Amino acid sequence: CLLFLSDNDEYRPPVWKSYLYQLQQEAPHPRRVTCISEVENRPKYYGREYHGMISREEADQLLSVAEGSYLIRESQRQPGTYTLALRFGNQTRNFRLFYDGKHFVGEKRFESIHDLVTDGLITLYIETKAAEYISKMTINPIYEHVGYTTLNREPALKKALPVCRDMPDGKDSPEETGLEERVRYWNAVTQNTAPPSLCD
């Protein structure tokens, strides 16, 4: 699909998408902290980011070099379990790490540790920087303020409204009734409630 714009036109993606995309681009990038010495019993599904059984404090020191740095360590408290240590917000965060053919710390699964960390950094960054914005998105439908939606709402309303004859005040159809009545009708239709009759 090609989009052709004249000199006066400018494509603007929906506001909420461009803002979240901008935040995604600003998020820290993953920086793998590799272990320079050979580690015994390294699981085959972890690479050089695996440091064996080191303490939280040692991990914190190794990760303090840059935001977005990460490593994997074996838990000292629970041997045989693994922890993803990740630097974000000037502190080290530790996540219990699992592998079942894919890597995960929650429900979402990833082919590689790098992908998991990338997604985690973006998520943490957006939650930190856009928490208020996201909560507003869930309350107020921000997309309604985008020109495309506003411009296209009217034709959609006309298609959704029934055609009625003998309207009060000499009006021939719902299109000629007030916008307020049409919006009230549309809201009732989209909320699956009985719409107020425009033909009474």
Q: Enumerate the spans where pLDDT stays under 50 for 5 or more consecutive residues.
A: 1-7, 148-179, 187-200
| CATH architecture assignment of the largest domain | 2-Layer Sandwich
Bulk shape: elongated
CATH structural fold name of the largest domain: SHC Adaptor Protein
Order of helices and strands: HEHEEEEHHH
User: What is the number of independent domains?
Assistant: 2
How far the N terminus sits from the C terminus, by CA atoms, comes to 46 Å
Domain SH2: 49-117
Pfam families: SH2 (PF00017)
Keywords: GTPase activation, SH2 domain
Protein name: Chimerin 1
Set down the secondary structure blueprint.
Elements: H1 15-26, E1 31-32, H2 56-63, E2 69-74, E3 82-88, E4 91-99, E5 103-104, H3 113-139, H4 147-160, H5 179-190
Parallel strand pairs: 1-2
Antiparallel strand pairs: 2-3, 3-4, 4-5
Notable traits:
single chain, alpha+beta, SHC Adaptor Protein, 2 domains, five-stranded mixed sheet, 5 helices, SH2 domain, GTPase activation
